[in-house]
Structure formats: C-alpha cells, structure tokens
C-alpha cells in the first residue's frame, strides 16, 4: 500500500513540477527590462510627445528609430519606462506612444491604469508585441498596431506611427483653426 502511494505521488507531482519549471522559464525568458528615461528637443516646443516603453532589445531599437524619425525643431520627446507611467499627467502631452508586450493577452498593469485615466484617447498610440505578433489590446479604443518582436517589423511600425502622428497634428490644427 505504501509503495502504491509513493508511485501515485510521484506520478502526480512530476507533471506539476515540470509545469512550474516551464512557467518559470517562460517568465524569465520574456521578462521585460527597464529603460533609462531621456528627453530630446526643446521642452517649450508645441508638439509634446511621450514615448513609454519596456526594455527589451527590440523595443529599445524601435524607440531609437522612432526618436530619430520624430526628433526635430517642432517636437519635444520624452522617453520613459512603462513602469513610471503613473507619474505622468496625460494632459501635458499632445501624443502618447506606449510600446509594450502582451503577456497572457494582457498589457502591463501600469499602462492599463494610466490609459484608464486618459481623458482623450485619440492622442494615444499603442505598439503591442506578442509572440506571433497578432495579439491586440481590446480594452481601449485607441490607434494600435501589433507585431512580433522582429527587427524586420521596425520600418512598418515607424511608418504607421509617422502617419498617425501626422493625422493627429492635422486634427489638432483644424481644431485650433475652428476656435479662431
């Protein structure tokens, strides 16, 4: 009887231990790093752009490409880590770009909490990464693109961000024109 119990415990516990090891491996491999904040441009510029990202090799390269594309006399860029979004006031930014991973179909809690407080979601762009690149954020009505974390996707994402930014700036100019 004791021998049967030991075999039963072994048969039940081995898959559980393997599942825990696999889950921990997944979490370790897909853990997001923290990026160092920096700013580019004149803080008094008319176009204030906040870029919040997580710190993976792909996301850092994407941020570098976006900064290179967007920097200029008319734009002020502030790049922060997603974990510090709670310190930001969305009203201070004309455009907000959040680059994040989706894990188990969910975005980071800090980003989700920040977005739930944003009054004007039309100025928000989400760049979501997931394993296959087809997972999307469904809980907020914002402009969004989804991609796998592949460097070959960076040109498409840059183009998409540039087009959305131009559209947002035109909308802002039209709104300002109607007030005068």
Spatial order of the strands forming the largest sheet: 1-3-2-4-5-6
Describe the sheet with the most strands.
6 strands, mixed
**Unreliable segments (pLDDT under 50, ≥5 consecutive)?**
none
Averaged pLDDT: 85
What is the fourth-level CATH superfamily of the largest domain?
Flavodoxin domain
Q: How far apart are the first and last residues' alpha carbons, in Å?
A: 89 Å
The CATH topology name of the largest domain reads Rossmann fold
The SSE order reads: HEEHEEHEEH
> If helices are DSSP runs of H or I spanning 4 or more residues, what is the number of helices?
4
The geometry reads as elongated
CATH 2nd-level architecture of the largest domain:
3-Layer(aba) Sandwich
Helix content: 40-55%
Domains counted in the coordinates: how many? 2
Question: How would you describe this structure in keywords?
Answer:
180 residues, alpha/beta, Rossmann fold, six-stranded mixed beta sheet, 43% helix
